[in-house]
Design brief:
The chain is built from five helices and six strands, in the order H-E-E-E-H-E-E-E-H-H-H. The protein is an alpha+beta fold. Strand 5 (117-131) and strand 6 form a beta hairpin. The longest helix has 17 residues, at 175-191.
Length: 192
């Protein structure tokens, strides 16, 4: 089922998600709905706060288009299975550690900020300990787009948004769009 994506200005986006303790059918269904919504919005990641839930779950899929090489390094539980076997990925109750402090700049967007893009500095390498929808523990290590996507989505789970880290000049360029989104959200919430 396609869920409504929350927009900047809705308070849920600043909420820290609650840890997930029930690994049941409802959780699996939420993860599937989030994946369907992410694909429908043509995104590569989606956090629970973006579908109006303050929970510690996000989904992502960073497979490159068919025929293109994978532009990042990764391992899952110490192995390197093909991306087709592990994507889309549901990440629950993540704990992230930076394993490569070198910062990389990349232009990011966000489904809760349609039309807003800007340069964001993030560490290159991450290690993420998490659970899947059945409660099994995993460790993913990644750099490049996968590492960045994990950091972006885990930030959402902690109430942090990419505009908080955006290059000041890019933020200034997007100021009018961001204010317009906030006004539209205020109007939406009044009508709720």
């Amino acid at each position: 089922m396609i869920l409504r994506v929350t927009q900047y200005g809705e308070p849920i986006l600043r909420e820290v998600g609650k840890p997930i303790t029930e690994f049941d059918e409802a959780l699996a269904e939420l993860a599937n709905d989030m994946v369907d919504t992410m694909y429908d919005e043509e995104g590569i990641g989606l956090a629970a706060q973006q579908v109006d839930r303050a929970l510690q779950i996000c989904v992502l899929d960073v497979r490159p288009p068919e025929g293109m090489e994978v532009p990042f390094e990764y391992s899952l539980d110490g192995k390197k299975p093909p991306l087709e076997l592990i994507m889309p990925m549901a990440i629950i109750n993540p704990k992230v550690t930076i394993i490569d402090q070198v910062e990389d700049v990349y232009e990011e967007g966000c489904l809760s900020f349609p039309g807003v893009n800007g340069k964001v500095d993030r560490p290159v390498g991450v290690r993420c300990e998490y659970q899947d929808t059945e409660g099994n523990n995993h460790i993913v290590e990644a750099d490049g787009l996968l590492g960045r996507c994990i950091l972006h989505e885990v930030d959402h789970l902690n109430g942090k948004l990419f505009i908080d880290l955006m290059d000041k000049r890019d933020l200034k360029k997007n100021e009018a769009k961001i204010k317009k989104l906030k006004r539209a959200s205020r109007d939406f919430l009044k009508g709720k």
